[in-house]
Amino acid sequence: MVMLDRSSAEERHIEEIRKIKKEMGDKLVILAHHYQRIDIVDLGDFIGDSFELSEKAAHSREAKNIVFCGVHFMAESAAILAGPHQVVQIPDEHAGCPMADMADIHNVEKAWEEIASVIDTAAITPIVYMNSDADLKAFCGRNGGLVCTSSNAPAAFDWAFGRSEKVFFFPDQHLGRNTGNERGIPREEMIVWDPQKPFGGNSSEEIKRARIILWDGYCLVHTHFTTKHVREMRKQFPEAKIVVHPECHEEVVALSDAVGSTGYIVKYVQEAAPGSTIIVGTEINLVKRLARENPDKKVIELHDSLCTNMFKIDLKKLLWTLENIGTVNVVTVSDTIKEDARKALKRMLDLPRP
């Protein structure tokens, strides 16, 4: 294993965190997203993408305290799924998600009303990406929809199309479009909804024709990658395989060898043959960790792209949270929102595993 260059203060933080973990035992669960710093991942009881960690949150019934090292919408989902005896905390309450902020309940409900004036909403299923606030998950729960992650978006679309003619997908247009492309939906049957324009900037005929309505949102990390980056890496490493996340632009996806969720990317690298060169288009902390954990392969970033919100969580903040277990940065969701949001999350968890 590669030795990390840590300061004496960081070493002390790690020692104290491990001590608290040992003292609390099964009463404490630390969930760490793949994009966290390596030190945080090493201290997590469960490491995964948002889908995997949602399942762990749902099944960690013995733990009284759940500390979620990720961004706020993830901890919020854990709080929705948690039992009444459990407390969910996040080490930095300001670790948000710009993509999640691109859709709010006011604009989504306004869009739903505008759509309803053109078509019967019984013909459309809303799907909200995990990267969203709890009230949007509740909106989907109330309206017969569900939550999805990048792992199970195809299964969520299949579920929705088995019940309705159309899908209203928010907030990430690129995951929605790439999933639609994978499902063979023609381009003219996918439209983008701009919440700043009446009817999302679409005509009545376009709304009627569309099978997928995509919210005009995007991930700053994954839209950072361009076709130029792919072509440059192809020239530099002609033998390499390129794997990217489905939040990337469809043009980047089309030029890559494989596309999949964070969990898929981890498995792709792990299962590659020794001596392989894999170029990865996702958050840089994960790429660095994959390189560390797979020394028999050459793992290279497609381009340096950091999730600054994930990076807000560090050893000092995690230790502070554990020293104040159950009292600081507690993530709460109102009972009304929780009830409807839980419906949408349960429908997701009941989907066939990806």
Structure description:
The mean pLDDT is 95. With 354 residues, this protein is an alpha/beta fold. It has 3 domains: 8-96 and 310-333, Rossmann fold; 99-219, NadA-like (Rossmann fold); 222-301, NadA-like (Rossmann fold, 3-Layer(aba) Sandwich), CATH 3.40.50. The strands form 3 sheets. It has a 5-stranded parallel sheet, with helices on both faces. The protein has a 4-stranded parallel sheet with strand order 2-1-3-4, sandwiched between helices. A 4-stranded parallel sheet has the order 11-10-12-13. It is built from 16 helices and 13 strands. It has helices at 8-24, 38-43, 50-59, 72-81, 98-101, 105-116, 134-142, 153-161, 173-182, 204-209, 227-236, 250-255, 262-271, 284-293, 315-323, 335-349; strands spanning 28-33, 46-48, 65-69, 87-89, 124-129, 146-148, 166-170, 190-193, 212-215, 241-244, 258-259, 277-281, 298-301.
Give a short synopsis of this structure.
With 354 residues, the protein is α/β, with parallel strands linked by helices.
| Biggest β-sheet description | 5 strands, parallel
SSE order in H/E notation? Answer: HEHEHEHEHHEHEHEHEHEHEHEHEHEHH
CATH architectural designation of the largest domain: 3-Layer(aba) Sandwich
Task: Count the DSSP helices.
Answer: 16
Overall morphology:
globular
Please state the structural category. alpha/beta
Which CATH C-level class of the largest domain is it? Alpha Beta
CATH topology of the largest domain: Rossmann fold
Query: How large is the radius of gyration?
Result: 21 Å
